[in-house]
Description:
By secondary structure, the chain is mainly α. The chain has 20 helices and five strands.
Amino acid sequence: MARNQTTHTSAIADVLKFDDIKTKKEILYEGDFYDVTEWIKRHPGGKIIEFYTESGEDATMAIQQFHQRASKKVMGIMESLKKRPATSHELQNMGLDMETINRHKSLTTDFQTLFEELKNEGMLEPSLPHVTHRLLELFFYATLGFYLVIQESMLLKAVGTLSLALLQGRGGWVVHEAGHRSLTGLPKIDSFIQAALYGFVGGLAGKWWSSQHNRHHAMPQRIKRDVDLDTLPLLAFNTKIVKNPKLGRSFFIQNQAKLFLPLDTLLVFIYWKFYLNPRDAIKRKSYDDLFFMTVHYIAAYYIGFVPYLVSVWLAGIYSFGNFSLAHTHLPVTTQPMHWVEYGLLHTMNVEPSIWCNWWMGYLNFQIEHHLFPTIPQFRHPLIADRVKRLAAKHGLPYRCESYTKAVSMALKNLEHVAEDLRHG
Length: 424
């Protein structure tokens, strides 16, 4: 009887231990595993943290680069979590072979050395004149656009509509930088600017943007991780994301190269503005986002339906057209990769020039931006040569094409994907 009871108790203990292993969520940071089981629910960046609880993932680079501006706060949170040293056996059994593990160690050392050099040189420091210039530019578009769009002259209305389109499109670049906390370098101020501009200028929710964009930024072109690949049923940037052959032969997919800029961009913006973002802001109880979005739609009422819709359409072409140049035509992956490998293997730059740097808000330096998201984007030209040397040292590509070539690559990729799905 006692023996049976002991066996039964042992069996229960084994089950409980197994359940604990299954339910516990840990991330690897600088050689230690941190228990984030409960913290996941409160993580401000959304579900991205769950990606790093899976086998083969190391969160060290992502935490350091995403949270550079709030490192003390983040380290305080990390210290409050239960942690345990990762054993050599665990580190060697992350689903990676020893050659890959050693390559990643070398890459980490050189990357961190470069980052410390850039930090010591002041490359993370923002520029008040630069920020002021960018905000004044948006103020100019807003003032000109609102003034002209209410005039009787159709020509003036057209110019005003174009100005409002530039306000939304170029406002998106500023929102992007504020979202990465690299605009003023002050997280609270950048967060406010992000919410105010994305809400008032774009009619969208800043917190929604952060939760989505961080997933893309952490693992670009990674299937089931990068939300920028979740474009069905309108678009398929790669055949591997289409599981249903019938969907791959649909009207929108088969004509995606023609429909992407003139139609798909508008449909996505409408979906975001009138359904996805309001729903997300309400669900999060994000009252600041809801306030600025409400002001946006009050302004839209006074602008008028047609000028407003046309300005949204043009802004969509401008924004999505430029964002598609850096990733969409590059290979996808399903495997864990090093932070630097994501930035170099699945990202491409567009050749810099005065006009291109302005037109793309310095996001033509996508490689540098993905590696160092908290470095102000106007400093990217200053660090590009050293990133090239890092890539060359580790045998990684550093892709850079002209603007026209990048546009051609993006559109031809849509054609090739449609053709492959048609015949597949």
